[in-house]
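Field guide to reading this record: the first block holds the primary sequence, the second block holds the structure written as discrete tokens, and the final block holds curator observations. Each block starts with its own label. This record concerns Nucleoside diphosphate kinase, catalogued under organism Croceibacter atlanticus.

BLOCK 1 — SEQUENCE
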Amino acid sequence: MCNSIGFEIEYLIFAPNLKIIKMSGIRTFTMLKPDAVEKGHVGAILEQIASAGFRIVAMKLTQMTQTDAETFYAVHKERPFFGELVEYMTRGPIVAAILEKENAVEDFRTLIGATNPEDAAEGTIRKLYAASIGENAVHGSDSDENAQIEGAFHFAGREMF
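BLOCK 2 — STRUCTURE
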């Protein structure tokens, strides 16, 4: 099913006994952050994402304005790091993408690793490419609901395949 912006949020499957089973979580949102783009890690990170079985259904190189970053990260507005986060996210281009795979949010969070690269598991994106907790290379949605919201923030329905 698609909502008004065309972001696929769930599938409905009819089981043999005619009950409707809901399957959600096939899409997630990610951003390759300015530090990853600046250091030339985009290709390697995208390869790791594809090798993990994700299909890219939308992707673009873009740059967030101050208003974009303040809006996107509004949940952190009262946190002491908010200003630094906005400055970091607006300092250069990002790669925004919507990824598709069963159990997308959870599997992608595992693939990217802990926010602090020192705590991230070996082989995860953040362990390989992040410099610090502040410059951690990649964003991954933390829930199906946030994946929908974040994807809609960056992409119009006609931009997703």
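BLOCK 3 — OBSERVATIONS
The longest strand covers residues 55-62.
The longest helix spans residues 144-154.
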